[in-house]
Specification:
single chain; alpha+beta; four-stranded mixed sheet; 8 helices; 4 strands; globular
């Protein structure tokens, strides 16, 4: 799938797609630094489906959001954490207070607790990237 279409499929922003590629959750068709062609920059559809499957299968669906739950971008603002760090915590299972809003798909459905993110980042779990350890508040 052309990279430009991935945000529409995952219902997220381009920075989220970039972070997912950096984290290795989305795979490019050809994986090397100096990609020249649009085909080489395309994202493997199987990796997109895996991300959507994780979002759908791992997080409980709710009809109404619990108090304090925010979408991904708002959580990044409130917790003052990089999207990449939040996504890493999310996909590695370090965040437990995550829900999926009924009637939405992809990242548009995902809502998190910014206070939990702050709490986790005060003492980052073992195995997360250096970005989480050197996060400046």
């Amino acid at each position: 799938m052309p990279t430009i279409q991935v945000p529409y499929v995952l219902t997220c922003s381009r920075p989220v797609v970039s972070a997912l590629i950096e984290l290795g959750l989305l795979s490019r068709i050809h994986d090397h630094r100096n990609l020249q062609s649009k085909v080489g920059k395309a994202v493997d559809g199987r990796s997109i489906n895996k991300v959507l499957d994780v979002l759908r299968d791992r997080f409980d669906e709710v009809e109404e959001l619990p108090a304090g739950m925010e979408p991904l971008a708002r959580c990044a603002e409130k917790s003052r954490a990089k999207l990449k760090v939040i996504l890493e915590l999310l996909f590695k299972g370090h965040l437990s207070n995550v829900v999926r809003l009924d009637g939405q798909v992809g990242f548009a459905a995902i809502h998190l607790d910014p206070e939990e993110i702050k709490s986790v980042l005060e003492s980052p779990p073992v195995g997360v990237s250096e970005d989480a350890y050197f996060l400046i508040h």
